[in-house]
């Protein structure tokens, strides 16, 4: 007799007694999802084109990310001069790791499709040939930057360790010094919709750091050698809410091809993003799990197990696997 499996009714999502771990999530707009939907999380913003520096007027287009895309600058660098057209290029990621090398066809207007699990693109030859100065940069931005961008400030302190919180919004947060003191100051904090959040009040002290947190964003202000003055400012530009979740598709290129959670309830976010609850860990009846078209449980079974989402084989109540 084979292994005895749990018996569940066909509409029972929970597939075992493993402890369920939940978290607040944001279901991205444009989706009407049912309980049991397996969701991935959008992590990065990937441009559709690369920017060329150096000689040549060819193009880098059709850029997409992959399951392992990381924030930073990807470089596509010409390493061998073309005979007449094209050339040989190497591709490195933001950490300087080599992702691959390729040689363009030696034909006018020729193209090459580079593919990897971090970045993919099409390189096209132009009327002016590439040479060893030709470098394309593809800058992948993190949804929430790690640092704030200083304005034309007098003070040279910094805003670092930026993180999103439960009610984070996409857009620009603005921090403005409204009161200055020696080695400190008070900053107003305004969210992307123009709403005022609690002031960020620095603890005075030479070189001191002050951690600030509200229900949208957290950051640390560090005093510099030159004090802040009234009007000094920082901006924090959020392009992707790190809690934003979409129905998992193995073809996704923004990080959401990786399992993140299982939706705990029906959510209609057709018009606008909506907050909900996702299961981060647990055992689930694989018959009740829902994926984007073209993706099924066999595409992500191992990846789900790696993050604590355990799909279990199940059957109609009353039957036994024998």
How would you describe this protein?
The protein has 322 residues and is mostly beta strands. The protein folds into three domains: 113 residues, Virus Head Decoration Protein, Chain: A (Beta Barrel), CATH 2.40.300; 98 residues, no CATH class; 83 residues, no CATH class. The protein is 3% helix and 45% strand. It has one helix and 27 strands. Strands 5, 6, 8, 9, 10 and 13 form a six-stranded antiparallel beta sheet that branches. The chain has a five-stranded mixed β-barrel with strand order 2-22-4-23-25. The termini are close together. The N terminus and C terminus are likely disordered.
Short overview:
This protein is mainly beta.
So, the CATH homologous superfamily of the largest domain? Head decoration protein D
CATH domain topology of the largest domain: Virus Head Decoration Protein, Chain: A
User: Which quaternary structure do these chains form?
Assistant: single chain
**How much of the polypeptide forms β-strand, as a percent range?**
over 45%
- Count of individual domains: 3
Q: Let me know the average pLDDT.
A: 89
Q: Which sequence of SSEs, written as H and E, runs from N to C?
A: EEEEEEEEEEEEEEEEEEEEEEEEEHEE
